[in-house]
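Exercise 3.2. Students should predict the tertiary structure of the chain below and write it as structure tokens, then compare their answer with the key that follows.

Predict this chain's 3D structure.
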Amino acid sequence: MEIHLDKRAVKLIRLSAQDAIEEGDTEALREDIYEAFSEDQVEEIERRLDSGEFFEFLTDALDEWSGDDVDELFELLETQLGEIGIDLKYEMKGSVDEDEEEEDDDDLDDDEDDDESYEEEDDDDDD
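Answer key:
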């Protein structure tokens, strides 16, 4: 089974993890990770867990996390969910930035097209 975290959920976890790194407290992070998953996703995860408790699963994962690197946290969640047959999919921070850059490039291309059409119209007026 695959679980996809949307950009909002990934951003929430990243910000919360950064706060946890700075403050050294993972309680809010655990709750934010829990809330990043939908009810259906949590139920599916709990069906596959021996303990049946996603919150406990997150506690164990955060205990294993070094608390230094946000990407390490995502990799840890991905690995531990993979062990119970769940493939966690999410956009890495870099890929989100690249998507935004592509959109910006597309906007620039559109502007260039507009400029060209004005130039063509100007040429017609000169005749």
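Discussion points: The chain is about 75% helix and 5% strand. The first strand starts at residue 2 and ends at 4.
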